[in-house]
Design goal:
Catalyzes the phosphorylation of the position 2 hydroxy group of 4-diphosphocytidyl-2C-methyl-D-erythritol. This is 4-diphosphocytidyl-2-C-methyl-D-erythritol kinase. The chain folds into two domains: about 150 residues, Ribosomal Protein S5, domain 2 (2-Layer Sandwich); about 110 residues, Alpha-Beta Plaits (2-Layer Sandwich), CATH 3.30.70.890. By secondary structure, it is an alpha+beta fold. The protein binds 4-diphosphocytidyl-2-C-methyl-D-erythritol and adenosine-5'-triphosphate. 4-diphosphocytidyl-2-C-methyl-D-erythritol (CDM) binds next to β1, β2 and α5.
């Protein structure tokens, strides 16, 4: 049994306030693409995790892996002692702003809900997701949505840009989410616009871009390369350093992808579509 863990994008991310609990109040437009990690499960005694895929070497398969944390939390919340032999095919770069770990945790919850026959559904799994991380509820829902609070209050929205060709690129730099938030200057630059996804993006920002750029100059270089590649739009996702670009056609996107691999051979790229 397998479950996709699609990459998450923050099409816009407005940071409004530093809260007393150390988190930041956000307004963000979450969206997903048609590619990402994959979590699969087979019968097993106890809980175990095996890692495969291009980024397996950047992660441990120990207790702190979000797949095992999600499985353990679900086991204890459901009051069951069933086992699971889990495999994570790690295709997304780690600590890169596209929610890889959050997507894996969410996919694990959906997968084990079926595998263990718990039938909690998305609604029943939501509190467990929120306990695992700010992005896990959005990844559990897996639909275009406006997120508020620390990202866990979600309102789904129809995506007028569904199917749009996307190129996602990372300069090969891992950024700590906490370190990027710590660089935010405390200035509230205003709410998300109302309207369709395309309106929200056009009038939106990623307020973590400048903080992330203070930690790595590669983001400026990557955004310039994407904008110069024929994209109709480019922005950083989450706390970076991954950026995404939207294209008017597959041909333009694929040409940009080839140019990026030639000009920046050490960058990681993924050609995909908004869902
Ligand atoms: C940047 C985003 O990816 C945008 O969707 C998320 O806000 C981050 O979500 P995440 O990686 O699931 O983050 P968590 O694991 O919950 O938190 C990691 C750290 O990021 C900071 N953090 C996270 C979320 C938030 N709303 N405010 C924060 O200040 C906190 O220092 C926290 O200790
Ligand atoms: N399965 C996993 N995949 C990725 N990271 C994991 C996983 N399990 C634990 N982690 C840890 O979680 C941290 C954040 O990883 P993740 O890839 O979710 O960050 P991110 O892409 O910046 O996510 P976000 O956009 O939600 O901030 C990493 O430092 C990593 O060590």
């Amino acid at each position: 049994m397998r479950e996709p863990a699609p990459a998450k994008l923050n099409l816009a991310l407005h940071v409004r306030e530093r809260r007393a609990d150390g988190y930041h109040a956000l307004e963000t437009l979450f969206a997903f693409v048609d590619q990402g990690d994959v979590v699969s499960v087979a019968p097993g005694d106890g809980l175990s995790l095996a890692l495969t895929g291009p980024f397996a070497c950047d992660l441990g398969s120990g207790d702190d892996n979000l797949v095992l944390r999600a499985a353990r939390l679900l086991q204890s919340q459901a009051g069951i002692a069933k086992g699971a032999a889990l495999t994570l095919d790690k295709r997304l770069p780690v600590a890169s702003g596209i929610g890889g770990g959050s997507a894996d945790a969410a996919a694990t919850l959906r997968l084990l809900d079926r595998f263990w026959g718990l039938d909690l559904g998305i609604e029943g799994l939501m509190p467990i997701a929120a306990a695992l991380g700010s992005d896990v509820p959005a990844c559990l829902l897996g639909r275009t949505a406006i997120g508020t609070g620390r990202g866990e209050h979600l309102v789904p929205i129809a995506n007028d840009l569904a199917g749009t060709p996307v190129l996602i690129a990372n300069p090969g730099v891992a950024l700590s989410t906490a370190a990027v938030f710590a660089q935010w200057d405390g200035v509230d630059r205003g709410a998300l616009a109302a309207g369709e996804v395309s309106d929200i993006i056009a009038h939106g920002r990623n307020d973590l871009t400048t903080p992330a750029q203070e930690l790595t100059r590669d983001i400026n270089r990557l955004l310039d390369a994407l904008i110069g590649s024929g994209a109709s739009f480019a922005r950083m996702s989450g706390s970076g350093a991954t950026c995404f670009a939207l294209y008017e056609s597959d041909v333009l996107r694929d040409r940009a992808s080839r140019a990026m691999s030639q000009d920046h051979p050490h960058y990681w790229t993924m050609a995909c579509r908004l869902t």
